Amino acid sequence: MDERTIIRPDLRKSIGLLLKWAAPCLLMSMALCAGCGEPQAGGSGDSPPRDTEPLVQTQPRTAQVVEPAPAVPAVPAAPASGFGPAAITVLPLTELSQPTDDRGQQLNVYVSLADAYGSQMKAPGVFRIELYDYVQRSAEPKGQRIAIWPDMDLTSPAENQKYWRDFLRAYEFVVPVQIAPEKMYVLEVTCLIPAGRRLSAEWLLRPGN
Question: Is 6 domain-assigned?
Fold first, then answer.
């Protein structure tokens, strides 16, 4: 007999023990595998379906039409400020002229209008010239009024240009007067702006002016 076919007694014994313990384990494994295929309670097999809450049916939503807001009327831009008459000044050229052969005594009044930035300008308006006695050492030097002349309406372009002296950037008014040349007087010039404003200035008329 070939030496490779001889099985030792101890090896034969070991194989027998292995088969003795392996057979029960194999049978148990087969039983467990067979049980896995059976449907379990509460599983997803043939068990009756669970009661589920009915779905709440919602009403179909309709698209809401949003009406456009009414158009806001455009607000007209405010007119530029600062370019209208803001101040009036009686210029130092103002003087009392003595009578001559061809004319009597007269008062030459030079008036300047200026905007808010101090620029001299011409503008429509109604000018009024008044003459008052001068009260010395008084908080209010303007005393009794001794003369007032008719208002001069310079709202029309032609009449405005008639009194305008472009080289002076001022208006010239010549009014007749009869006063004592050696006394002092307070001259007041008022300009009534068409917008409703009133500008006023005073000038101390001294002897020799």
Answer: no
